[in-house]
Design goal:
This protein is α+β, with helices and mostly antiparallel strands and 403 residues long. Helix content is 34%, strand content 17%. The chain has a 5-stranded antiparallel beta sheet with strand order 8-7-9-13-10. Strands 1-2-6-3 form a 4-stranded antiparallel beta sheet. The chain has a two-stranded antiparallel sheet with strand order 4-5. The structure holds ligand EPS.
Amino acid sequence: MTLLDFRTAGESHGKGLTIILQGLPAGLPLTAEDIAADLARRQLGYGRSKRQQIEQDQAEITAGVRHGLTLGSPIALFVRNRVWEEWQEVMRIEPGDGGGKKVTRLRPGHADQAGAMKYGFDDARNVLERASARETAARVAAGAICRRLLAEFGIEVHSHTVAIGEVCLPSAVGEPDWHAVEQSPVRCADAQISKRMVAAVDAAREAGDTLGGVFEVRATGAPIGLVSHVHWDKKLDGQLAQAIMSIHSIKGVEIGGGFVVAAGPGSQAHDVILAPEHWSDRAWQRASNRAGGLEGGITNGEPLIVRGAAKPISTLSNPLPSVDLGTGEEIRAHYERSDVCVVPAAGVVGEAMVCFVLARALLEKFGGDSLAETKRNHASYTKTIGPRGGPAVRLEEEETTEA
Ligand code: EPS
């Protein structure tokens, strides 16, 4: 079986987004509805542009599934861009000049300038179409399939907004009410803070400005022992950091207590290991979870906690000073309809990336060409989790002897 992997293709105003996800076992129940809910959640969030009223993202499954079950072959998806209807000339695939209009007013903070130099373009549209966060719809579609797999193993992944601009939740907030998160326009369960976040987005819009912030992703149910401490590029915290950092606008990633823990002494940085009589619903529980569920780059059974810090998006309706790509003149940057704040949506994208990394880690550990095989491997490993020589291991030994 290939290691789980996905690729996306598609421009923001092109015909649509194509996704290929490979490496899933056969026999996983999957329908387009499993993907629809996450695609819809990504489109919500106070501060998005009018583009979200045009699009109604839906993923068509075009390969890899038969009679509602995965086949073990690559899964292909297509998400249509509704805007394509009006952009056919500008984005035409056949030879042409797109109506002669080029984007040359480089936006500081976007990929316009570096991308144009790198690829030798005289039209920044050739860069911005792919650098656009539209691509995150494709990631969410792939992530939703990974979420479907994780659900088979009792793993749940949620996210919430912890800061928009200067409005933030107190740091030791704990697990939020996920239902309240989904009801909030900014995906923040605290009603008062949610209102202040909405007001901050309104003020930024008024000022022709944009706002960034921080989202947090939490995953529960991951077994102890995913991935490994032995190779620098395999550690799960490193993989999560890369996956979150790869999301558009993200400039910082934190795991567990992150920067706050770095500022305190060791006695307040680590998570005391509780004795078995204090375990409630799982083995090896801790008194706290400052490590964010990861020690040595391996899952330790506590919830995974990872945060992403998003810079304010770079397309400003009151544009910054810049330079024209063609003439070198000082001008104001390009402005096209854009979002004011994407932090609530970025949290949903963060979930998708965490779902993907966790699903890959799960399949790496348990393998399996069919879901039934993966489940058998998972179940037999789970029985070994406990103090060495303790009840869980004895149980496994008895079973082996009987067999
Ligand atoms: C984006 C600009 C806007 C966003 C877009 C990302 O698109 P448009 O210029 O068509 O209004 O809405 O995000 C999406 C389309 C999306 O689905 O998230 C950009 O410049 O990155």
